[in-house]
Design a protein that fits this description.
The protein is an alpha/beta fold. The chain has 10 helices and 10 strands. The strands form 3 sheets. It has a 4-stranded antiparallel beta sheet. The protein has a 4-stranded parallel beta sheet with strand order 4-3-5-6. Strands 2-7 form a two-stranded antiparallel sheet. A hairpin with a 6-residue loop joins strand 9 and strand 10.
Length: 410
Amino acid sequence: MAPGSKTLTTRVASGSPYQLDHSQTLKASSALLKHISSEIDRKAATSTTKNLLQPSLNTSDENDGMDVEPVWLSLTTKKHIVDQRRLKPGKIPLPHSLNQSPTTTVCLITCDPQRQVKDTVAHPSFPTALSSRITKVIGISKLKARYQSFESRRQLFNAHDVFLADDRVVTMLPKVLGKIFYQSPKKPVPVRLEPYRQTDASGKRVAAKAADEKTKTIAPPLQVAKEIEKTINCALVHLSPSNNTSVRVGYSSFTAQQIADNVEAVVAGLVEKFIPQGWRNIRAVNIKGPNTMALPIWLADELWVDEADVLEKEEETARDLTAVAKEGGKKRKEEALNKAADDDQGRVSKRARGGEAATNGERKKKRRVEDSDLSQEMRERREKLREQKRLNKAEMQGLEKGKKETAIAV
């Protein structure tokens, strides 16, 4: 790594050998927000028409009507994080929520029957501020029946800002909702709506009572409100089989301190819960906007995970010499094989040319014979036609002569 980038890596005496430098994170956040703000102002000044497709993400009342852009944390690892794509996103709590606006609408998708969840949300002990944001509660069966067409799903998609789903039915939603939801940032987020497991005096969990297959148990109103509030205030982590993961950590309307706090919280959550081998597997941490360059806030000193992946100098030199010797032997062998193949190809080509010439002579001779046969056949056919024409003419003359004789006799 270049000497100028070593300041992006900080070692500590205890705990993890690596950590983020808060001053570097704050500096990068300030520079990124300043750049995004200047770009928005420049586009607004030079544009003669308003972009109706530009999303207006209002995170607070004082930012109403202002177009803002998301800020992303881009984390690159040395090895793949997971082996297959996960449709169920992970959650990391944020100190500064991405859904701060009281006007943010929430659609809650539940298991059947939906009436239990509706009664829970309408219960007097359920927080009023949260219940006012939950504008729709729908069960999985009614969701399948009502939203079968693409147009109806698009209307549902545009009608709400956040979609939450009971974690007992969240794996059924990709087939029900389709690509309009799962190719956008509005993927349904799993939330736990079933009661917590009870524990006995010794601290062991008590087995839950067997419930009816058609009836699912719902947690008390305060627990449901707590889980929904916690889910809304979390950052979503969508993992895929690659060495890069992007997480939304804020908007351009946030302050630099808020962005820095969210970045540190997300990095700590990723290292603790999602990235195998933690900091040893992280290569770089950057922050960026949707149309900006990535600003580095942490870079790894090593490009490997384990020390066993690094060869000693003597061992590496010996392996290189062996590889060179094998490569030289392979090249000489390949040259000999190629030469022999060229010789064989030349002999085959000569035979092929000779055989091709003989074949062409036979074809010409056969064509001449065929032409002579065809000419003889055509001559015979012309003679037959002439004979037939002569007979027809004689027959016509005989008929005319007979008619004349009959007329004279009459």
